[in-house]
Design goal:
single chain; 418 residues; alpha/beta; Enolase-like, domain 1; TIM Barrel; 2 domains; nine-stranded mixed beta sheet; globular
Length: 418
């Protein structure tokens, strides 16, 4: 049956070198572990991350209280429960916490356990993790939304927009998608070197050159795409994560320059950028509570591009339903630690797909070697994955896992529909 015999936790470190929670769930001598990621650019409606803010030994960033909660409270509550009943286990965690934003236990405590339970269930069933989600056959592989230039909260340069990404739209396999991204990234590196610009990288592996305008970043990417033998907007598309929460003040936005502009002017500038650079996807173009601007932007772009809600929805079903009724976007970013359990995450993915939204499984800026989201993307037939650039092991680990799954699927491997 696979009964949980104990749960233990420990403090480990994420890709930014900050403490985070790892939980290990046991069924007799078999165990599986998972590490909770952590974001830098976070929405205010995200589930609560429990840190020891009053302790000085880790500058208030340690997670010993979260670890203690797992070892002393969660472990006892989950003992003897069936590891294969994910919904019941997650319901126990939710009831034990009892708050809207997981402020009692902390979403980092809950999620580390929830993911480890799903992994252990797969291990006991002797099936790959991706086969233990929504889809049971006819799996499809996601297109990578690969971060290649970092700005905003993810870098120390002057760029307003947080992520400049590429998506290999013409790829017929995940292997080909990775090759296309590899070529563009390597050619962009050469271009930056020739311009005496830094090729050092930001938190998510994208280059973080000291440039200060969106157009300069976009021109560099277009040049790299062309140098790689591809056509921008046809073979490879440019996609953006604006993270507009960080660029919003008194109903105005500083997205296209450091000067704050009206919503109408911001939308006009977006439309010019979309047309000039053939942008196919924009994430968080406006702030998390600016519903009117989201709706206006959707109407003015006539559903021709992918408009992605991240801070707007924070993987929360209630907020997604508001966004659907408001016609705010046509896509949602999925981040497990924004909501706190695997079950709640799956519910959001199911609802989003039922209303015709594309679902994009995403990493966080504070990541780990854990590859859970790679399997999640395939196990839910989500058509895109954001896992950073083709740089830094914690990012590449996810892409490598999808390559392994593609190999195991053999002739049945196919790419998702965009």
């Amino acid at each position: 049956m696979g009964k949980i015999t104990k749960v233990i936790a420990r403090q480990v470190f994420d890709s930014r070198g900050n403490p985070t929670v790892e939980a290990e769930v046991f069924s007799k001598k078999i165990s599986s572990s998972s590490i909770c990621p952590s974001g830098a650019s976070t929405g205010s409606f995200e589930a609560y991350e429990k840190r020891d803010k009053n302790r000085t030994d880790y500058n208030g960033k340690s997670v010993f209280a979260a670890v203690k909660i797992i070892n002393s409270i969660i472990s006892k509550k989950l003992k003897n429960h069936n590891v294969h009943n994910q919904e019941k286990i997650d319901h126990i965690l939710l009831k034990l916490d009892g708050t809207k934003q997981k402020t009692k236990l902390g979403a980092n405590s809950m999620l580390a356990v929830s993911m480890a339970v799903k992994k252990l269930s797969s291990k006991i069933k002797k099936i790959p993790l991706y086969k233990n989600f929504l889809v049971k056959n006819n799996f499809s592989l996601p297109y990578p939304l690969m971060n290649i230039i970092n700005g905003g909260a993810h870098a120390n340069n002057g760029l307003q927009i947080q992520e400049f990404m590429i998506r290999p739209d013409s790829a017929k396999s995940f292997t080909q998608a990775m090759k296309m991204c590899f070529l563009v990234i390597n050619n962009l590196r050469k271009i930056l070197k020739n311009m005496n610009l830094s090729t050092s990288v930001g938190d998510e592996g994208g280059f973080a050159p000291m440039i200060s305008s969106n157009s300069q970043a976009l021109n560099l990417i277009v040049k790299a795409i062309k140098k790689s033998g591809f056509i921008n907007g046809k073979h490879i598309s440019i996609c953006l994560d604006v993270a507009a929460n960080e660029l919003f003040k008194k109903n105005k936005y500083a997205i296209h320059s450091k000067k704050f502009e009206t919503v109408s002017k911001s939308i006009l500038d977006y439309k010019k950028m979309i047309k000039k650079y053939k942008i196919k996807s924009i994430e968080d173009p406006f702030a998390e509570n600016d519903w009117l601007s989201w709706n206006k932007f959707m109407n003015e772009t006539s559903n021709k591009i992918q408009i992605v809600g991240d801070d707007l929805y924070v993987t929360n079903l209630e907020r997604l339903k508001i966004g659907f009724l408001n016609q705010s976007s046509n896509s949602i970013l999925i981040k497990l630690n924004q909501i706190g359990t695997v079950t709640e995450t799956i519910e959001v993915i199911k609802f989003a797909q039922n209303i015709g939204f594309s679902t994009i499984i995403s990493h966080r800026s504070g990541e780990s070697e854990d590859t859970f989201i790679a399997d999640l993307s395939i196990g839910t037939n989500s058509n895109q994955i954001k896992s950073g650039s083709l740089c830094r092991s914690e990012r590449v680990a996810k892409y490598n896992q999808i390559l392994r799954i593609e190999e195991s699927l053999g002739k049945n491997a196919k790419m998702s529909k965009l």
